[in-house]
User: What shape does this take?
Amino acid sequence: MAVRTALAMLVLGAAVLAGGCAEATAGSTTVEIELHFSRFEPATVTVPAGRPVTIVLRNTDPIDHEWIVGSEAVHARHRDGTEPVHDTRSTEVSVPALETRRTTLVFDTPGNYKFVCHLPGHEAYGMVGSLRAVD
Assistant: This one.
């Protein structure tokens, strides 16, 4: 039992050092990101590639935000796009003021992915983060 507890503490500690609050459950990972003062906290997270990851997005601001993760092409499309709400893609989530949303996705390919709030002025203000999927 002591070994299992020590292992759980080690996994949780490593997840926090990696930039997110993660918990290992049945082969999946949960990462919490707070949207506060028009910033992502943490702004950098590390997740396992090839496994389900649940992202919990807590908007503590009195204004709406969004969380869009993907390639530069995805972000270029959203910078010029007109989609006011994102609810059909797990990589694009609208988060109303003072609410929480969850999305679950798998990053099949290890690499670095940018996440951004593309609502007018938010990216320029610094509402940008980085997600690293690792083997």
